[in-house]
Amino acid sequence: KTQELRGPRQFAAVKNPITDITFGVCRSVRIIGMFRHSVRQQSLCRITSCGIRSIISAPALAPCARWSHLRVINFHWRTFASPAMQVQEAEEVAPITRLRNIGISAHIDSGKTTLTERILFYTGRIDTIHEVKGKDGVGAKMDSMELEREKGITIQSAATFAKWGDHQINIIDTPGHVDFTIEVERALRVLDGAILVLCGVSGVQSQSITVDRQMKRYNVPRLAFINKLDRMGANPWKVVDQLRQKLRLHAAAVQVPVGLEGGHEGVVDLIQQRAVLFGGQNGDEIRFEAIPKELETLVQQKRRELIEAVAEVDESIAEKFLVDEVPTPAELQAAIRRAAVSLSFVPVFMGSAFKNKGVQCLLDGVVDYLPNPLEVENYALNRDKGEEKTLVYVDPTKPFVGLAFKLEEGRYGQLTYMRIYQGRIRRGDFIINMANQKKIKVPRLVKMHSNEMEDIEEAEAGEIVAMFGVECSSGDTFTDGQVNYSMTSMFVPEPVMSLAVAPKEKAMQTNFSKALNRFMKEDPTFRVHFDSESKQTIISGMGELHLEIYLERMKREYKVETVSGKPEVNFRETVTDRGTFNYTHKKQSGGAGQFARVMGYVEPIDPSESKDKFEFRNVIVGNAIPPNFALACEKGFKDAADKGPLTGHPVEGVRVVLNDGATHVVDSSEMAFRIACQYAFRQGFENARPVILEPIMSVEIQAPIEFQGAVVGGINKRRGMIMSTETKEDTITIQAEVALNSMFGYSTELRSSTQGKGEYSMEYKAHQPVTRDIQAQLVEEFKKKRQAE
Is the C-alpha dihedral spanning 85, 89, 95, 99 positive or negative? Predict the structure, then answer.
């Protein structure tokens, strides 16, 4: 009997008696060494009884008179192979068609890191499974930061690589919390495929929608994995419906769970039409059995749904479907791959990572349905041709092109993560940073396994590697100088919250500055500026947790204790009508004076016409204001828009039109016009019915149904608008929109009102106008602040 295998952990599941051997009788290390070598060479594709005989040489079997002396028991790969032995050396790179670059993304607490831990275990990268907040205190492999293990959440994306059969998989585990969304953004920018993890109980949640939007932004093919089917209330079919309705994905299940909640044992493969059951302490004993009778009707129904869904996006299956011809498993699998790679279909897998169910089948899905680098088109901007979009080829013989997508401060200097899009890179090569044209040498090239490194000599197109000692910024493009390319940049969301910080002692100022500079380089959403009026250092980020984590890291990594003020919301100002201005700046104090006159109007920008935050137009006919002063006028208007008249926050969505003016032969100057435009902007702004905009958050709250009244009352008290409610058994899920300024301290209130059983998540939605009473209050507070200064 021969069993198809893809990974070392699946080898343990083969029920061939000749492979179920114990080395208690044969203690010779030669057996282990030769077995390890032979398995690696065969890529673990086919193991037969004859293969086992050929692996173990006769001298090694000297202690045993015959094969029958070997006692038959369950065979476990990790029993005699150390993690180092199980991992193929980094130099042995799989051919490009057998390479997968994937990310694992989801809403917070959906089980991403737990799933990654199982993937590493089943592929032989780690020897023991550790939980995210396990009792052993070790923590998951991918949560290498001390803060991550303490809080039980992923803060930074972490990279690793593994082998599944003869395929190499580069994996990036990303955070689920909305405050660290940039980690997901830049990971998806460089990946070829992704796994969208969903909770089998909660289904599609707020951050699931955000992650899906990010995947669509970068055209990333994906698989969906419905996790936690062992939990009470798990309903995978509700989640599949939500994928179709909420995310607008053309999705269908390729598996049916065998049992739910406490009775979850495995899955039924709808393509091969067989049950896959997982046993053993770590789920590494796999049994293939006939479909249970009680599931036969459901399996036939779901298989027909799968074929119908694939037929809608694949012509070959559609032709068979129309004539009632059943496609073979190979035809169906090939069609699913074509549809998934072309972004027209999402196969849905099922299981429970925590209970070690379904992960090996998901790995098969990654290999079968997600694209290799050759199947993904990536474009660069050719600077020699006016930034024309140019296809980059996954070809090691072409000129080198790489993108630095993530930075970390390591023990040996800056660690730069890079995706190689074209060509190859070797240790010691000279490459050019296209942002500043600096030529740099690559001193060290590594592949990452969480916080561990494996040195490599070279890497080719399609690989994700890291470099040491290369100074650059996140998003910089590198080439070997033969081409003048720049890779398209990633989307960076604007910060929504600010905080004034200062070191407790003056002696800490140097380390304080170092920490801020490092964090800014690592994280594009973390901003720092010095307020010249208040003389304070202001840090801005994506939320309370985001800023709190950086202050904690500053304390631990740089030994800097900080004093922080109350978090401030990043309000914005805009206008709702056209407001004219006619301002003359005149100053005479002996000698050359200052004179400038500007006329025009301020008006709102229609979002459907332009997405610019500020626009300046000079429509003066003639020479009322000479061209050399026009640039000074634009600078003056921009200076005024940086600090709005109402609250000092930036002005957005405003167009300034300059249509007339006057000059003086002697007294007019660039400075005079710059000052005149600053005052003119304030005049026009006041005449244009200005409003203050505040960030509105999409909030999702889950709590036991008996606390519904308390939760709804708390949202109403905070000026929130409830968008929808959904009741499932004894749990209620509330979707609401609430102003960020009203959300401070909500976590404490929710815990106290639900006896610690409620939880919530939120993400930024948009800036919207505040009510009149709040606007008057904010303006009054700003006036008092200015007077006090």
Answer: positive
